Structures are given as C-alpha cells and as structure tokens.
Amino acid sequence: PESLDDEFEDDDLKEEPEENLAQIITDTQRIQSSLLENVYGQDNAINNFVSGYFQSRIKAISGKEVKKPSSVFLFAGPPGVGKTFVAKRFAYDIIGQELKEQIKAIQFNQNYSYEDLVRGYRPSGENNGFDLIEGPFYKLCEEAAENNNKKYFFIIDEINRGEISKIFGELFFSIDPGYRGAKGKVQTQYQNLIGD
Questions:
Q1: Helices 17-38 and 43-62: angle between axes, nearest 10 degrees
Q2: pLDDT by residue (tens digit) across 89-140?
Q3: 102 and 119 in contact (C-beta within 8 Å)?
Q4: Angle (CA) 76 114 170, round 5°
Q5: Which residues make beta-bridge pairs with 35?
Q6: What is the tens place of the pLDDT at every residue in 52-85?
Q7: Cα–Cα distance between 196 and 149 in angstroms, integer?
C-alpha cells in the first residue's frame, strides 16, 4: 500500500493507538521493502499480502477481533513464482532474523493425514507394537506454548495436494474463536487413550 496511514481511522483503535499504529506502520513498511527487494516479478502479490498483514494487525489492536492475533495467509499461483520463498522471507522479517527453529515448513501430498500432521500411532520397532508419535504441527505448537514471547510460523507447501478434511480433522475447531480455550474444548480422536 502506498499510504498505510489512510487505511484506518484513529477512533477505530483502542487506548494508546499512536504508539501501536506507528509501530505497525514501521514494521509493515520494513517487511514490504524487504520482500520487494528480495522477490522479483511479484510486486502486486506482495503489496496485497502486506496490505492484508497490515489490516490483521490493525484489527488486533482495535479489539474488534481476537486479542492475540494469529494470521493465516494463503498464496496461490503457478509453480516456481516464489510463493514458498515469500512465506519464509516474511517469517524471517517478522521474527527479525533467520531463526529456523521458529519456522516449520512441510509439504502436503495425497497420503498426508492428521496422524502425520498432529499425532498418531505409528509402527514401533520395539515389541512389534505402535507408539503415539507427535507430528510437526503438534511439536511446533508445544514449543510456541512454552515460549509464548516468541513468534512461530508454520508454512504448508502444496496445500492443494492434500485432502484437507483428512489432514486437519478437528483442528478446524481451532479456527473458530468460539471453540478456543477451556470452555470450547472438544474431544479429539486420541483423547480417550492419552488423557488431557
């Protein structure tokens, strides 16, 4: 966006809006400049993406949506145009440095399932049995919960190749704010086997 200042009115914001708004504008402009310098031929997509990021940050401080923002961005386009690169570059820019331990990137395929993404039973070499194995999304969420002062990113490549309902399962409940927290707790498919 050419002028981030004009997108929202000051009375849309909660108390101390100038400090929050100024920081958001500075961060957004820094991210936009970095992406435009590092990704070629995608100026329009980057500008739209940065505008969406800016709006989600403004909504978070306005109190109109969730108090602690977590954003979901979906990049679509033909292969080889830099979608994954932009996502990773954006994550590095938000974190402030290239910290790969705070960014997890995976790729969906036709056989990917909830058991791969979150947790599931997998054959074990010991006793010819099965072990409950935590997937990459579960591990990243656990780490983020232990370090809630850090920012974490989960990047899914080739999301269109996976069967979404098979992969996400009851994680769709997590998208709806009405199901978040203790009052919205849902029973998961393995909960009866492992407890809370």
A1: 160
A2: 888 877 776 677 888 999 999 999 988 998 888 888 777 788 888 999 989 9
A3: no
A4: 90
A5: none
A6: 778 777 776 766 544 444 567 777 777 887 788 8
A7: 24
**Are the CB atoms for 104 and 140 separated by under 8 Å?**
yes
In which residue are the tokens 């690169």 written?
85
Q: How confident is the model at residue 2 (pLDDT cuts 50, 70, 90)?
A: very low
The rounded Cα 13 to chain-centroid distance in angstroms is 24
Euclidean distance between CA atoms 87 and 105, whole angstroms:
10
Phi, psi of 99 (to 5 degrees): -105, 95
How far, in Å, are 80, 127, 146, 160, 171 from residue 75 at the CA level? 12, 44, 29, 11, 20
> Over the stretch 146-195, which tens digit does the pLDDT of each residue have?
988 888 888 999 988 999 888 887 777 665 656 666 666 666 665 655 55
Q: Are 131 and 190 in contact (CB under 8 A)?
A: no
In the numeric block, which tokens belong to residue 53? 């990021």
| CA-based nearest residue to 54, from 108, 14, 98, 6 | 6
82 Cβ partners below 8 Å, 6+ apart? Answer: 39, 40, 41, 42
How far is the C-alpha of 91 from the C-alpha of 109, rounded, in Å? 23
